[in-house]
What does this fold into?
Amino acid sequence: MIHQTLHLCLLISVIGISSAADPIQVISGVFMPNNISVNYDGAKVACAAHYSRLATLQDITVAFAKGYEFCTWGWIEEKRVAMLRLTPFQACADYNVGILIRDCPNVRSTFCVNSISGTIQILPIPTSLVPSYENASKTCTGSGLAIATKEEIEQKKSLITDSRLAWYNWGVGKVSGGSFEQNSCDETLNYASAFCYNPALSDVLITKDNRTWKKIAIGCIIAFIFVVLLLTAAFMRGNKCICCMGEKKTHAPEPTQAPVPTWNTTSVYRRISHANKDVVYDNMVNPAKRLPVIQPDMSFYKTHYSNMGFDTIGEE
It folds into this structure.
């Protein structure tokens, strides 16, 4: 019964969370479609189905500054996966806040181009820096170069013999077999949602009302306590729980002797038997002082008794 109660409460909570996520929030034209998990190309298709395009890093930065946040990773135009968090929460990027970017943690090289000669070099990102697009770009500029674009790599791919994965302008790729292959950062995440952008959309702010689900949660807790008390009462006998009752006693308790009465042993009382009761009574009363039974005044009347009562017949 307890398992069924918990399962029901969990099911109601999941339904409530799903229904609460149905509306789509839009801030500064940026929104995220519901319940999609796609690769980079699929993210473009999903946004096109909503008459929009993939948002750029600049687009989500503007939306974030105006209060946009979401607990889901999503693709952006630069082939990167981002999450926008204003409030810390463990399930959402482990309490991290800000414009969070998931970069390729194992890609520590970058395509750099010489703007004068057009030659492309692959330089390693210093070990003191986190492998990211920003640090890849800094590595190139620190050497007097610029991070290469896809078009520049395509033009010089026949001269590139290094087949390592490396950062280029807003992406990761490599030259293999004389062709340039883009990579969607599979080392970190291959599927995610998508940040879409449509400047014609009006802002839609969603304020989640959790009072209903708080009431449901409180009701589930009360129901759980009630079930526990009901099961406890079922295992109770008298005022003791069956599992806590000791061994029953089979022998009768030892009798206790009643106290001996002392009321008739005092000197105030004296026993008088029926054999000498009259004698004692006669001795206590002086017969000479007793009045006669028949008074002289009663001699003027004659009386007799009958079954109907006491009748008088008057004087003689």
Q: What stands out?
A: Confidence is low (pLDDT under 50) at residues 13-21. The longest helix spans residues 211-234. Helices lie at 2-20, 40-49, 57-65, 133-142, 150-156, 211-234, 277-284. The chain is about 30% helix and 20% strand.
